[in-house]
Specification:
There is one protein chain. The termini are close together. The protein is α/β, with parallel strands linked by helices. Strand 10 and strand 11 form a beta hairpin. The strands form 3 sheets. It has a 5-stranded mixed sheet. Helix 4 packs antiparallel against helix 7. It folds into 2 domains: 122 residues, Nucleotidyltransferase, domain 5, CATH 3.30.420.40; 174 residues, 2-Layer Sandwich (Nucleotidyltransferase, domain 5). It binds zinc ion. Zinc ion binds next to loops. Its EC number is 2.7.1.2. One of its GO terms (molecular function) is ATP binding. It comes from Streptomyces cinnamoneus. One of its GO terms (biological process) is glycolytic process.
Length: 313
């Protein structure tokens, strides 16, 4: 099979791209994400038609946040769009006249990294995506493992703190409350409140108040040596690395890939994650250690992965 299209449905934008067998993106287009479920389907169809102009395209892969059923056809539940048992595959196929595969967005990103990014050469890879929340993907024996009902690898909602912080999912103490972009902002605000003298650079980048601190300020401040910003990354990394050690007990992969906006900081966040991983890895002195790698494809991983999954059929 030659060219396929990958579609990445984000909270604000829908991106579609024509992708070849090497994982290269030949053309892209972006449209705003509409408010209504039907509007989103129309927008996907429009984006697919626009981007495919001039190309012979054979299939479409769609990455969507939420639970996707084991047939890779129906979005059972989406957190950001009002989709409940939405027959996305059928509806988009009717509009674009091409075979469609629907995949969870974190699974699609994991597959993209495994095929064309940091996971190349590994057979067993576990991916985590540190974005607003924490997503995951499991590749064992060169296969994407989706579970019996299609909803595996929701690592972000593993409960790591009994009776811990309330999570958007309704549970308490979920991993993503401690290891995610949102958690990073919370750490920085709390620390800036407690010790503003250690957060002068960080506070100067926002509106001067702890509440005004946002993710991009923390990255910039950490690079300029701001103690609170650096410490906030370390706290995030401590939780992320400890969780990876638990995942090593479950899956024993040869590599973990850390993606998402937070991982754009590279070794600033990866090195403390590796340190925490080694600290918490059970029997660490007597076993081989999985590598902890930064994702390589950035925000394109989901689109490229979805396109490749559509190619695989
Ligand atoms: Zn949760």
């Amino acid at each position: 099979m030659g060219l396929t299209i990958g579609v990445d449905i984000g909270g604000t934008k829908i991106a579609a791209g024509v992708v070849d067998e090497e994982g290269s993106i030949l053309a892209t287009c972006k449209v705003p994400t509409p408010d209504t479920p039907e509007g989103v389907i129309d927008a996907i169809a429009d984006a697919v038609r626009t981007v495919s102009e001039g190309f012979e395209v054979e299939a479409v892969g769609i990455g969507a946040a939420g639970y996707v059923d084991d047939k890779r056809a129906t979005v059972l539940f989406a957190p950001n769009i009002n989709w409940r048992h939405e027959a996305l595959k059928d509806k988009v196929e009717q509009r674009v006249g091409l075979p469609v595969v629907v995949e969870n967005d974190a699974n699609a990103a994991a597959w993209g990294e495994y095929r064309f990014g940091a996971g190349q050469g590994h057979d067993d890879v576990i991916c985590i995506t540190l974005g607003t929340g924490l997503g995951g993907g499991i590749i064992i024996g060169n296969k994407l493992r989706r579970g019996r009902f299609g909803v595996a690898a929701e690592f972000g909602h593993i409960r790591v703190v009994p009776d811990g912080l309330l999570c958007g999912c309704g549970s308490q103490g979920c991993w993503e409350q401690y290891a995610s972009g949102r958690a990073l902002v919370r750490y920085a605000r709390q620390r800036a409140q407690a010790t503003p003298e250690n957060a002068e650079i960080l506070l100067s980048l926002g509106d001067g108040t702890p509440e005004g601190i946002e993710g991009k300020h923390i990255s910039d401040a950490a690079r300029q040596g701001d103690p609170v910003a650096i410490d906030s990354f370390r706290e995030l990394a401590r939780w992320a690395g400890a969780g990876l050690a638990d995942l090593a007990s479950l899956f024993d992969p040869s590599a973990f890939i850390v993606g998402g906006g937070v991982s754009d900081e590279g070794d600033l966040v990866l090195d403390p994650i590796r340190k925490s991983f080694r600290r918490w890895l059970v029997g660490g002195q007597w076993r081989p250690h999985a590598q902890v790698l930064a994702a390589q494809l950035g925000g394109k991983a989901g689109l490229v992965g979805a396109a490749d999954l559509a190619r695989q059929g």
